[in-house]
Amino acid sequence: MKTRNNNPQDLIVKPNEKITISIVQSTGLLQEVTYSLDGSKTFPGPKPKNQPCTFPVSQNGNLTMTMFYAGNSGGSFKVKVTGSAGGESEVSGTQPDNATFESISFRFKVEAN
Amino acid sequence: MKIKTNIFLAIGILVCSAPLTRAQRNIGKEFEDQLKGLVRDITTIKNSGGSADAQANLIRNQQFTELRRTSLFSLGLAVANAPRDRYVTKIEEARVDKQVGTSANSSGTTSLVAKPSVPAILGFAVENGAIEKSTSGTTITFRGNPIGIIKALGDKGFIESYDDDDPTTKVLRRFSFGASFDTSRGAQPGTFTGSNQQLSAYNLRFDLYNHRDPRNSDYTKKWERLISNQGQAFTANESEILKFFDDSMPEYDPQLGAWLKAAQDAVIAASADNVEKVLREQFGDKLRAVTLKPELRAIVTSFENNVNSFLNDRGNLLKEVANGPIVAFEYTNNRPGNQPNYSNFNLIGEFSPFNGRADLTTNASFSTFSTKPTGVTRSARDFQLSGQLDVPLGDIARTGPFVFTFSGKYQHVFSDITTTGTTPTTLEKGNIGIGQFKFTIPVKGSGVKIPLSVTFSNRTEFIKESKVRGNIGITFDLDTLFSKLKP
Q1: Which residue among B60, B86, B199, B304 has its CA within the 20 to 30 Å range from the CA of B17?
Q2: Is the pLDDT of residue A5 over 60?
Q3: Is B163 on the interface with A (CB under 8 A)?
């Protein structure tokens, strides 16, 4: 797995490589995290934050994940993405006190090449 | 008797007229907050001193992208797609159970009763005036908890992984600690040095029972249900929405692609001071000018409904959480300077009577001398019982939460205690009764609150005569102040 344009969320993988998303640091997050691959309402679906989410990439795909803050400040996270053929990427963020959005979603664009 | 009756009548009226303390969130407020997050991050890049190319690359490829700002892009489309006047920004509730001032026993406090929760990272407070003691001073209080330290270490890269919901950190999360410094003491009175002479108290607190933590196991099933239903539904909506921004997808909409490219260019060209204005233009009139494809419009409408439903149910669940009881134990080592050091063991409770429209805090404490003073035969110093009723008032959305507070305290001192220094005085054994009315005025959006209080007592600790006294203080919440300075 490699990143494109130094963007940790824009990933190039080998065909059928498995991608694993793990939340390695978490403060002030609720237990459940939701995932949707290419707009699916059920796959990979909601999972506990301490359970990595693994999915195979047979072609281009987009995985959206949402984490939910428990309170109005002090939340933070670090997400690590690893490919079964090697390589890793990281995304992190904090919840500002005066911009207290209550959930945070972002997307991983994965291209099998 | 007549005065007592009038006081209770006044409290009854205030409680009955107090509004709910939490303004309901909606998609408009969520969008505003996400936008502020992007403004903060782009402004940081622009002020970083990096080359123009490096800044442009970071903005275009990492910060202002639909990959990183999935929530913002989806929320922005929903707000732009809705009638212009549908979403009005509302503000956050302010918690009244967050104590940033010094504890009730320290010099310079405007609080009679200790509160059971502390700011997540660091609380800092300076208050002027005195209630229980005959001297006045300036006290600086620091409060923190182990999770704040673990998080800070993690952010600095010293810890590879942490989760504040794992069994160990769950226990640590229930601990907090604090230290107060009296800046009128030491070699440089009036200057905060943090020296041992200025240390006036330190404490350790443990939450025995905290049903105001949203992650308490009692709420787990309710969160799971909410996230698995509405949360999963809007995540799927977002995943679909972003396909229209992605030129590698069949759903790609060139109009949206062109909007994003132009918006990125405008933000890259903007000065740091202008970032917010430019982003508001782009997510406002510019995005509103894009005609959405019908299939995208349907997804955006579904997203809007799912997010609003999520926020509504989340707000209701948090209201339930906010009314949960808390019981905490606090140990404080008091170092008054002019009298013997003593330890205080305090059981603190907080409850929400009147259907959550008021906040009742109770304390029951017992103090013992660290070292028995000369002439005193027993280690017990005193015991205290106190209560405080906080009633939020006014229109929270427009002004922030004004809080009316009534508190009372009874203290029994077991032995006469003589102070040291050039003019020794004696704290006579016996009973002390203190009452206080306090009105706290918030300075909106600044983290500053101004408490005005009137205190009346049958005697103070050192002067055996009844007394009425007024205090004005100022309290800072560093969590809020830091957030304005944080890169």
Answers
A1: B86
A2: yes
A3: yes
